[in-house]
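Our collaborator T.R. sent over the components below with a one-line note: 'Predict the complex.' Nothing else. No constraints on interfaces, no templates requested, no preferences about which chain binds where. So this is a plain run: every listed entity goes in together, and whatever single assembly comes back becomes the starting point for the next discussion.
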Amino acid sequence: MAQNTEEIIRVENLTKVFGSGKKAVKAVNKINFSIKRGEIVSLVGQSGSGKTTVTRLILRLLKETEGKIIFEGKDVTNIKSEEKKEYWKKVQAIFQDPYASFNIFSPVKKVLLDTFKLFNSSYSKKEKEKLICETLESVNLRPEEVVDKYPFELSGGQRQRIMIARAHLIRPQLLLADEPTSMIDANLRSGILELLLSLRDTDGCTIMFVTHDLGLAYYVSDRIFIMHEGEIVEEGSANKIITAPEHPYTKQLIKDVPKLSEEWLTS
Amino acid sequence: MSIIKLLLKSPKFLIGFGLFVFLLLTAFIYPAVSTKDPLDMVGFMYEPPSSTFLLGTDNFGRDVFVELIHGMKSSIIIGLFSGLIATAIGITIGLFAGYKGGMVDNILNSITNIFLVIPPFVILILITVSIESRSLLTMGLVLGITSWPWTARAVRAQSLSLRNREHVDIARLNGASTFEIIVKEIMPYILSYIFMAFIIQVASAILSEAGISMLGLGPSNIVSLGTMLSWALLFGAVRSGAWWAFIPPTLVIALITFSLYIMNTGMDEVFNPQLRS
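Returned assembly:
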C-alpha cells in the first residue's frame, strides 16, 4: 500500500446551513476529520445524513457556512477561480448517477476532451485522442466502440467506467467517489470497485468513498467515518468500526447489513 | 454538417421550414413586384370574393388580398423582431438568475416580478403614446421589451433545476466558466423550450399589435394582420357575414405559428440525440 503518514486533507469545524431563520437546515454540523495520503476512507451514512454535502463542500462546489478545509497544508476555503482550477487538478469526483454525469448532447470523446481544459496543455488534438484511447483501454473499454457514442447508448457500467477514465485522465491526488456503485447492476459492481481501487496503485490516488453501504465500506476502506444527522458520530479503522462499534447509530447500521452482523455475531 | 443533413431528413422540419419560407417569400416578394397600394379604396364595402378581388373587399372597400399580403409582411416583421428581443432578454435574465442563484437571482427575479405585475398593456400604451413616429421596428421593440418576463420566469425555473445536475458539476470540475456552463451545459437542454417560447412570443406580438392598433396607437398608415382583424371587428364583418374580412388574416396568423411550431418539433427531434430515431 502506498499509504504514508502525510496528511492530504483536513477538515476543521466544517458546517453548512441551508436556508435561514426558522427554515434553516443544518446539513453538516461542525465536522472534523483528516485523511492521509494514499489512504482509502469511507464516509458512511443514510440518505440525508449530509455526506453528499460534505463531498460538494470539499470539491468547492458549495460554500461552507463555517469551518476550514486544509488541502496539502493550504487553506482552500476561500480560493478563487484560477486557484480552483489548480485545486481541481488535484481533487476530483465520481458521482452516483453515471447517466446524470453526462451531458446528453455530448458524445464520450467530447466529455473526455473537456477534461484537458484543466491543463492549459500543449497537447495536440491527436495526442489528446491517443491519451483518451489509452485511458479507455485501462478501464477495460474498447475506445473504437465507445468514443463516438452518446451516453444513452451506453450501459450504466460503461458510463461509470468512462467517469473513472475521466478521473484517471486527470490523475488527481484525492478522489471523492459519491456512491459510485449504487446505481450499477450488482454483478458489475465489483469490477467498478476494483477499477476505482486500482487508481490508488496506478496514480497514487487517495480515495474517499461516500456510501450508505457499510458492508461495501468495510471491504474497501482503511478507515470509516460514520455520519448521522450532519455529524460524524464515530470514526476508526474499518475493523474497529465493525467489530467494536461504540455509537448506537453505528450498531444499528451494522444490524442492517445482514451478512456482516451474522458473521460478526457468530464469531 | 451532419446536423444539417439530419434536419433535411426530418419531415416535420421540412414541412415547417417550407411553409415558413413560402409565407416569408410571399410576404416580401409580392409587395416588391406589385404596384397595388393596400390602402387604396378600390371597391364597395364588403364585396364578396370575385375574379376582380380574389378575397373580396373590406369595410373601406379595400382589396383584402392585397391587404393580406402587405399585412403579413408587417406582422412577420413585428412578430419576429419582438419575439427575438423578448426571447433574448428573457433567456439572458432567466439563465443567469437560475444558474447563479443567491443575490443575482434575487435582484433579477425582483425586476422580472415588477414587470410581471404591471399590466403590459399599460406599459405598451404609455410607451406608444410617447413615441412620435411609430414604425414597424419601434412597435416590435416596444412589444419585445414588455413581453419578456414570462420567458425569463420559465427559463429561470428550468435553469434552477438544471444547475444542480451532476453533468454541470462535472463541467465546473473541468474548470469551465459560468458562460461556458450556461451555453454548453444548460442551454442545449432548454433550446426546444426557448424556441417554443419564441414562437409564442411571435404569435402574441402579432396579436398584441392588433390590440394596440385598435386603440389607434399602432404603426401609422401601415396594414397589418392585427389591424385587419381590428377593422373587421369594429365594422361588424362577422354580423355582415363578410367572412373574407377576418378568416384569411386569422388563418395566416395560425399558419405562421403552425409553421414555426412544427419546425421546432422537427428541430427538437434532431438536436436532442435521445429523440433521434
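Summary for T.R.: The mean pLDDT of chain A is 88.
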